[in-house]
């Protein structure tokens, strides 16, 4: 797994899964041990330190639910509910066309879009860099700034504020890297 995939998988999982989800336990262990920094390719030490602080999991669960769950959620994680977000059917079609298995949950969840970028990277065919660029440019970047800003504003815990800021920097860095790779590929084809 490369750095791009790792970033997308970690950040996507933290947005997509409830803090008490057993699938997150290995990640919580890594955070509790303060070992995320050694695997993190970006210069975000202050934010990572904040993510790795000891948090009460019940408080994180309550914050997650207030932020993202139900009709009274402070911030919807679903792109189709944002003015610049993608239609859920568009995302589902895009991902299934590329062979990504999807559950019966909406495919336009912010966390799932990051997980999809990781999946596309891990299962890359010759044209998959282009698929990741399309995912970022049309399905993630148009609304992620507004989404992350609201998460930062409404979060009750420092964890979710730090997660929003970390994700903003990571998504920007990954988008710039994708653009650079795409430009280099275009120059090589000429």
As a whole number of angstroms, the C-alpha radius of gyration is 16 Å
Helix content: 55-70%
Order of helices and strands: HHHHHHHH
Strands, count: 0
Low-confidence stretches: none
> How would you sum up the global shape?
globular
> How many angstroms does the end-to-end distance come to?
30 Å
User: Which oligomeric form is depicted?
Assistant: single chain
Largest sheet: none
Mean pLDDT: 88
Q: DSSP helix count?
A: 8
Beta-strand residue fraction: under 5%
What class do helices, strands and sheet pairing give? Answer: mainly alpha
Structural notes for this entry:
With 190 residues, the protein is mainly α. 65% of the residues lie in helices and 0% in strands. It has eight helices and no strands. It has helices at residues 3-16, 25-32, 45-51, 57-68, 88-97, 110-122, 128-154, 158-189. The longest helix is centred in the last third of the chain and has 32 residues, at 158-189. It is globular. The two termini are 30 Å apart.
Question: What key phrases describe this protein's structure?
Answer:
single chain; 190 residues; mainly alpha; 8 helices; globular
Helix-strand blueprint:
Layout lengths: L2 H14 L8 H8 L12 H7 L5 H12 L19 H10 L12 H13 L5 H27 L3 H32 L1
Briefly characterize the structure.
This protein is mainly α.
């Amino acid at each position: 797994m490369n750095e791009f995939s790792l970033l997308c998988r970690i950040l996507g999982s933290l947005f997509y899964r409830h803090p008490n989800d057993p699938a997150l336990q290995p990640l919580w262990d890594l955070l509790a041990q303060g070992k995320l920094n050694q695997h993190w390719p970006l210069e975000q030490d202050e934010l990572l330190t904040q993510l790795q602080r000891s948090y009460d999991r019940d408080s994180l669960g309550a914050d997650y639910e207030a932020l993202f769950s139900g009709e009274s959620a402070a911030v919807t994680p679903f792109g189709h509910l944002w003015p610049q977000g993608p239609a859920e059917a568009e995302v589902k079609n895009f991902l299934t066309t590329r062979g990504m298995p999807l559950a019966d949950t909406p495919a336009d969840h912010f966390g799932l879009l990051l997980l999809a970028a990781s999946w596309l990277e891990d299962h890359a065919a010759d044209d998959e860099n282009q698929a990741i660029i399309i995912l970022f440019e049309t399905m993630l970047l148009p609304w992620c700034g507004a989404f992350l800003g609201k998460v930062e504003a409404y979060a009750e815990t420092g964890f979710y504020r730090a997660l929003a800021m970390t994700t903003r920097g990571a998504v920007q860095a990954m988008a710039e890297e994708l653009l650079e790779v795409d430009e280099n590929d275009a120059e090589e084809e000429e």
